[in-house]
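Tutorial, part two.
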Amino acid sequence: MKIKPVILVIVTLAIGFLLGMLTSAQLRNNRLKPVRLLFSEEKFREAMYNAIKPSDEQKVKIEAVLNKYSKMNSQATSSFRKEFELRMTTFRSEIDSILTPDQIIRMKELDAERQKMIRERKKHYNRDFHDSERSDSMQSKSDSTIPPPPPPGKDLP
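Running the prediction step on this input gives:
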């Protein structure tokens, strides 16, 4: 059997597999980005103002609704995260009594990896938030027809 064609086929399949994984990850990331932006109060408010582009008369009424729902969304997200961490702690306490010492070590490594991912996401979110603030300020200088949204909790005139 000729070895070169077999190696070529295997390498081609491996490259195709890797490209498919990377493309899939990018597509999922791009599709979920608008949803992730709505989790923080500031991003929710900003996204809604950019989408609606309210008139001056509408701003007062819209601000009241945005205040209500941005707080509700933020509380729901925070509550979910706290409940999830509580469930994970309870899960670990129940399962640790069944596991061997080697399995417990692997679970601790998994927990450490999960915490690392959470820290990276927070760092990435903060970087994205500050980058978008800079680009928004540059955009608002170039496009002065759309007023920026009022800051949260401020009364409108």
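Residues 1-37 form one domain. In part three we will examine how such features are distributed along the chain.
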